[in-house]
Amino acid sequence: MSHLNGKKAMHWPKTSCRPEDLAVTIVLFLAAIAGGLYILLAPKQTFSENENRVLQGAPEITLEALLKGSFADETESFVNDQFPLRTEFLCLNTLSQKAVGRRDLGGNYAVTPAEGGVYFGAKGHIYEVLLENESGIFQKNAQALLNFSENAGIPLWIMPVPSGSQEQKENLPLLAENHDQREELEYFQENAAGETYIVDTFDVLGSWNGDFYYKTDHHWNSFGAYEGYKQLVSEMGLQPLPKDAFTFRLASTNFLGTLYSKAVDFTQQPDEIYLPQLKTPQNIVQSVGGEEREGLYWEEYLQKKDQYSTFLGGNHSVEVVKNLDQTNGKKILLLKDSYANSLVPFLCTHFSEIHIIDLRYYSQNVYEYIQENDITSAAAVYSIKQLCDVDISNKLFS
After folding, report:
1. Domain span including residue 80
2. What is the total count of domains within the chain?
3. Listed residue (311, 246, 312) closest to 280, CA to CA
4. Preceding peptide of 113 cis, ω within 30°
């Protein structure tokens, strides 16, 4: 019957599956199955060295997680973190974003306060994106440090260290937005009083004097730390040792730091790490957690991703560095973040003891510590970005 109710019957065109389409479908299907089996059965990575972060483990199925939706979120993170060839895909993602002209990579602007990413700059440098200080954390930290000297009854030298993207602006991409950290320096300078002194390193760390920052890491390098040391001890009324009093031993040529972790790129040139040593040997010991060791360099970290922790073994809540050949009896308290770790090898030449406290991890009373250990002066060495990001002010209440 060719007609139905006076209408012509519709005939659908016959289709056939081409062999090449079938082959693609089978390959994609098998790849999906293989990927799923790999994620389920392969050994799970718990930490990404390249990204410097803990990876999501297998989510636990609970009624609460299902109702709150956290199970779905954790499952998505788990699949992303355990995906086969993850590092290679991260590198490909970085290269593709650079190819299309994106400049700010690795940031998270969905959180409050926002977390800036990194710029790929000239001369092989990766730079932190510096955002405006809108959280109020800096003001709290700065005021607590400015009040410290009066509360402790000892003089304090504050050295707020600028970031590489502040000091090497000429290497940033054209028209790249970047907060001017001189705003924070001026806050310190305008509000310092009594026996609180502000050490300005902005000019000495400028790129016209040299390259004082790692290319792949947010810290200053050993040569930048030396410039900071000179400025600090000069402000203290001490005579800094000349640069040629030290040897700078090349300890690593494959350092890839924290900024690299935000945008993994296999084409990135790694950094070199130099370890300074006074040409006239001195007997230096470091006490951490009740244990004492000779020297300041934990060279086992040169075999790990976090090679900057070669300096002092990373960050500890409290430690003491003693120069047994220095007989002046001077004891100084050093409040610090990790920037100061590479400063200590220079600073220890002037003091019998350096008592180092990292307020991010220290839970005791700082002022009682000063009294118990007969501390007579103090220095605070912090990167300005750290002072804007992490609240340490509550640790300095008297």
Report:
1. 27-84
2. 2
3. 246
4. yes
CA distance linking residue 36 with residue 319, whole number of Å: 47
Of 44 and 314, more confident: 314
What distance in Å separates the CA atoms of residue 219 and residue 382, rounded to the nearest whole number?
Answer: 11
Residues 69, 200 within the same domain: no
Do residues 77 and 144 both lie within one domain?
no
Asked, for residue 18, whether it belongs to a domain, the answer is no
Q: For 349, phi and psi rounded to 5 degrees?
A: -75, -15
Same domain, yes or no: 78 and 185: no
Q: How far, CA to CA in Å, does 108 sit from each of 113, 114, 267, 389?
A: 9, 6, 24, 14
Give residue-wise pLDDT tens across range 310-328.
Answer: 999 999 999 999 999 999 9
pTM of the model: 0.80
* 306 within domain boundaries: yes
Are the beta carbons of 260 and 83 closer than 8 angstroms? no
Query: Considering only CA atoms, which of 53, 162, 113, 160 is closest in space to residue 389?
Result: 113
Phi first, then psi, for residue 156 (nearest 5°) are -135, 130
Place of tokens 């390098």: 221
- Based on the domain organization, do 139 and 72 belong to the same domain? no
Does residue 104 lie in a domain region?
no
DSSP 177-213: ----THHHHHHHHHH--TTEEE---TTTTSGGG---B
What is the percent of the chain where pLDDT is above 70?
A: 75
